[in-house]
Amino acid sequence: MQVRHKIYITGIVQGVGFRPTVFKLAQQFSLTGTVNNNSQGVTIEVQGDKNIVDKFKNYLRNNPRPIARIDSFKVHHIEPILEKDFNIIHSQESGQKNVLISADLATCPQCLNDISDPSNRRYKYPFTNCTNCGPRFSIIKDRPYDRPLTSMSSFEFCSECQHEYTDPSSRRFHAQPNACASCGPQISLLSPSKTPLQDAITMLKAGKTLAIKGVGGFNLCVDASNTDAVKKLREKKRRPTKSLALMVSTIEHARKLCHISPLEEQYLCSSAAPITIVRKNGEEFNHISPDNNYLGIILPYTPLHSLLMEHFDTLAFTSANLAGEPIAITDSEVQTMYDNRFIDEALTHNREIIHRSDDSIIQVVGDHVQFIRRSRGFVPLPLLSPIKSNKTFLSLGANMKNTFALSKDNHIFLSQHIGELLDYRNLQYQQSEIEKYKNLLELTPDQIICDMHPQYETYHPEYLKVFHHHAHFLTVLAEHDLLNQEVIGVIADGTGYGEDHSIWGFEFLSNTNGSKNFKRLASLEAFPLIGSEKAISEIDRIGIYLDPAAPHFNAQRVQIIKKLQQQNMNTIMTSSLGRLFDGIASLLNIVQYAEYEAQGAILLQQAAENFQGRTSPYKCSIQKKERLVIQITPLVSQIKQDLQKKLSREEMAYKFHLWVVEAIIMVTKELGITKIACSGGCFQNRLLTELLQQKIKTTDITLYLNNEVPPNDAGISFGQIIYAQLQGVSPCV
Ligand code: ZN
Ligand code: ZN
Ligand code: FE
Of 336, 403, 470, 623, whose Cβ has the fewest other Cβ atoms within 10 Å? Predict the structure, then answer.
């Protein structure tokens, strides 16, 4: 029986070679009809024998292209017409703006073959791409996603590239960034060079620091096997001990350097190509990540990287910026770095970057994938909200690890990593990127949302304001569709403004009124941060507060801190677990001065992981007041006893981790609720989260962790949107 079906498909189906796939499939099945892009996605009309049309639909539905994502697939029966063949209808410009924009994609295996085949016309061409791979978000100025509206507009096709672009049977059919050596972008150095790639390789081999232009910005690179070169890079970046990332030539080589699980490998090799934090296999790369047992590795994700990595096993790899400012994207920005002798040379190219975005970072905890930074390769694909709101919201996020978010219907567009807003350049970056998103997505916010903290750069009294920890809590509730269930939010992090104006950071919240509101049911006992912000780096201030008599503290220093405490000068109270981790690291004399935020916690984790054997947790005491309060004094007295007994630091650090797990479980049991949602930066501590996952299995409690939303403050903007969607909307300011 002859039928004609009209199929509406939404999701990530444009700019990913979807139409040619449909075309080829229809030809294989000898069906007639059309396929075209529309404002919502792709529409197919397909005609032929009913059985074959059904086969076609099944195949299409169940075998989406690797980078496509089908969100909905609706079929209508329509009248068959007289028709001879199957055609791709070219997009009309109108009404094309609701379609999702693809994220940037790492080089595909076929393109890698092209650049390594001497007989291929793209042999060694660093900007080779096809509909399966290449830049997307980073080069798009406006929609529809068509070449004239991308940074490829300045390159005119040669006849061969033009032919590929218009031939539906080509892998490069409608690949907007399609290019070859004779018509596309070219690499160069800042200094004149006829052989920029070879010169860059020679300089790297000689231990020089190079800025290399990638997809979302420049990266700083040095030969990782050259410890002096790495040391120099650290000096320049004023980053003496914080981890760098490592670009590794191939997955095979990466397996030799680190323990890589199948899930980790899947992410490393995915088209998003994030930095993946994996366990080191030996001490060879301690100069890359000195403070911990892990290493963030990344595989080459552009043809340029691949051509470079033919000459290196490993490169130290980090965003090209001075401490705290946005990642560099223009030649003039790296020229300044060159003039200041911050870099020795830059390997650049003339394909403009429209959207800055840093590399993404993930880690696998147990069998759970955790996003530490959701940026290049993932943005601007929306996350889904369980709430469908007809209002558009813009949320401005937290001050640290900032991201913003825009929402429409049930789509939440969580931005790439922006950075620390205390630096005005990051604030400017945030503002300019918000404008670009608004344009690109054609969204005009009905309401703007900010954090409750009056000192945040993005605070405005007339915005809708959300408590930091409520926002963290809502991220997990929304990701697991638990907004209407009774759940305890266990939020553990460094800093968040609380209802009592103190700094919160180890909070047990209940969700009331369909998660619109929350109640603080339990927390860590508050302790003073003597000198406020100063105690984030001078963590001995916390250690001395915990036990001024510990023998490793300098007597004079103890006197000063005690005096400050008595005068109650510049002191704020906090229930932050992050700060307690720092304090314990100081108390165990692991570190007294944190070179970067959370270094104390990271070193304490490393010490605990290095403990071999069995031990028991520090006993946890909880006091019932107007809420449950996890006591610090009994913890400290147990640690003091262990210090006197000269127990190893590793064991004490481990016992402390177990104490945190014990506290979470004791409080949850006391509250009598069997679902907990854990979020906050402390859960990036792999040991802590793994111990919690294991311990939870012995109870009747179900543990929920963040999926694609980062548990750290990069997730706050997402939680703020959920809050706004729950509240409904009041007039925009
Ligand atoms: Zn490709
Ligand atoms: Zn060409
Ligand atoms: Fe936080």
Answer: 623
Burial of 473 (0-12, 13-18, 19+ CB in 10 A): buried
Tell me which residue has tokens 């679902």: 675
Determine the Cα–Cα distance for residues 251 and 388; give it in Å rounded to an integer.
41
CA of 171 to the centre of ligand 1 (A): 8
Could you report the average pLDDT of every consecutive run of 10 residues in the chain (733 residues)?
A: 92 77 90 85 93 93 76 91 87 56 93 98 97 94 86 97 92 93 98 97 98 98 97 91 96 96 94 96 94 97 98 97 89 95 96 97 94 96 92 97 95 96 96 96 95 95 97 98 97 96 97 95 97 95 97 96 92 97 98 95 98 96 96 98 96 98 98 97 98 97 97 98 84 40
Q: How remote is the CA of residue 510 from the centroid of ligand 3, in Å?
A: 17
Two structure tokens written together for 67:
């980078």
CA of 228 to the centre of ligand 3 (A): 36
Measured in whole angstroms, the distance separating CA 714 from the mean position of its chain's CA atoms is 8
Ligand closest to the CA atom of residue 122: 2
Domains in the chain and their CATH numbers? 2-88 (3.30.70.100), 187-349 (3.90.870.10), 382-480+708-733 (3.30.420.360), 521-705 (3.30.420.40)
Distance 197 CA to ligand 2 centre (A): 20
pTM of the predicted structure, to 2 decimals: 0.92
Question: Contact, 379 vs 216, CB < 8 A?
Answer: no
Angstrom distance (rounded) from CA 295 to CA 260 = 11
Burial 605-632 (b: 16+ CB within 10 A, else e): bbbbbebeeeeebbebbbeeeeebbbeb
